[in-house]
Write a sequence for this structure.
């Protein structure tokens, strides 16, 4: 029973990713966001049966996490870069780790 529920939930997640990311029903989505969503969905599909059968984490799990990282980097990366750039007092587009 739990296996059927988890498979149905994974199918719903993959369908939402396909509709929102690939077809564009979620609004404007950049190419990097689409790649991240598709990699996350592929990792979920690949790792799902292994989790259900009790196997240890594998390449599918790594793919899932990589998709999340790509998507979050595409969404929040520019804002984080601007914050890091402004840490030295002025946002000039240069980030240097050297002390002055």
């Amino acid at each position: 029973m739990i296996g059927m529920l988890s498979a149905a939930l994974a199918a719903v997640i993959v369908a939402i990713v396909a509709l929102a990311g690939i077809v564009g029903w979620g609004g404007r989505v950049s190419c990097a966001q689409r790649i991240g969503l598709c990699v996350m969905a592929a990792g979920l599909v690949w790792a799902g049966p292994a989790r259900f059968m009790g196997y240890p984490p594998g390449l599918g799990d790594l793919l899932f996490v990589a998709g999340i990282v790509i998507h979050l980097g595409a969404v929040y990366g520019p804002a984080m870069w601007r914050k890091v750039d402004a840490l030295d007092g002025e946002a000039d587009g240069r980030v240097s780790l050297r002390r002055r």
